[in-house]
Design brief:
Layout (H helix, E strand, L loop, with lengths): L1 E5 L2 E8 L6 H4 L1 H4 L7 E6 H16 L5 E6 L8 H13 L7 E6 L1 H13 L5 E6 L2 H7 L4 E6 L2 E8 L4 E5 L8 H18 L1 H15 L3 H21 L6 H4 L5 H10 L8 H18 L5 H13 L15 H9 L11 E6 L2 E5 L4 H11 L1
Parallel strand pairs: 2-9, 3-4, 3-5, 5-6, 6-9
Antiparallel strand pairs: 1-2, 7-8, 10-11
Helix pairs in contact: 4-5, 6-7, 6-9, 7-8, 7-12, 8-9, 11-12, 11-14, 12-13, 14-15
Bound molecules: nicotinamide-adenine-dinucleotide and zinc ion.
Cofactor: Co(2+); Zn(2+); NAD(+)
InterPro entries: Dehydroquinate_synthase, DHQ_synth_AroB, DHQ_synth_fam, DHQS/DOIS_N, DHQS_C
EC number: 4.2.3.4
Length: about 375
Amino acid sequence: VVNVALAGRSYEVRVGAGLLDDAIVQAREFIAPWSGRKVPVVADANARRLHGDRLTQSLATNGHAIDWYEVSPGEGSKSWAELERLTDWLLARGVTRSDHVFALGGGVVGDLVGFACAILKRGCGFVQLPTTLLAQVDSSVGGKTAINASAGKNLIGAFHQPSLVLADTACLATLPQREMRAGLAEVFKYGLLGDAEFFARVDQDSAAILACDNAVLEPVIAHCVGMKARIVAEDERETKDARALLNLGHTFGHALEAETGFGDRLLHGEAVALGMVLAARFSARRDLISLADAESVTEALARAGLPTEISALGLDCDGTVLADHMRHDKKAGGGTVPFILLRALGEAYVARDVELADVAAFMDEQL
Ligand code: NAD
Ligand code: ZN
């Protein structure tokens, strides 16, 4: 159990195998008020098919039934159209501000439901039941919620914290290896940004993590959640540098995602892996770390089967195009783009003196 302590309010993130089978006990205080009415659960279609029965059975032990709302898998569901359909559905069910809605799925469902609950009657409660590695270590914790706009990803959103997060590691057994690896990139990120020892441990254990060996997986997820909880407690709304460090690899990665169309060609986590390699190499180029250190990052990610060379993407663009995507980054402002760079492995910082022309030249070398 990790506690996310925020000013005036806090919530628990529980990590463990089989938590969904025990949901009726784990989430009792948020389920009990639904007595006599069906419990609204918004679910990714795959997550429902593979793990919905466990939730249904757990709730049935106390006489509760579920009203399912299914969301099609994929980034396309973080849309205005889906948000409207979902909020209409929640209103039709008479959800009030004191009620809790349940979100079962990966980051797509978590972000969509979180945002719907942030604006429904000016804010109702929600419980996250993350079913992907990425959602368990990152997106379900911290209260960033959003849908996508035509101008870019996650541009319409709100800060709205869940009341409880149940990360059932047993869900990960059904996750495709490629999705598992993408989540592992975010796990490496925690080590690289603030804990070199953890980075080495993840490198050592990457095969066991990918194989869902719970004895390894559970403490690793809990460690990531613990780090995120500390960062969010210090800087809930990203007004200081602390939370920005979580964007390590993301400015570079985002440009690659934009260029590849935010789809199956390059998953978010894969883009983050490439972005971390680029951030490490760019840090070496600026003499912040050694080239050997930068390449040790590359090698660890490669050992875990993550992509590390953007030349392999076969992008049909030059460095200026990629740098231009970074200019439009949500965190950009006042003509500068903050970059998360490395002072050492396990020590990231926010660099505000990076010229995009320099980044473009660097990207040209990498392409
Ligand atoms: P996702 O939600 O799209 O899920 C990935 C795939 O796995 C989907 O096809 C889904 O159907 C499937 N799936 C889910 N659970 C499964 C299971 N247990 N077994 C088998 N298949 C399963 O992707 P994601 O990687 O979880 O999340 C990505 C989203 O998260 C992006 O939209 C990103 O913007 C967002 N995100 C948000 C935050 C935040 O702080 N709010 C942080 C990082 C990422
Ligand atoms: Zn990410």
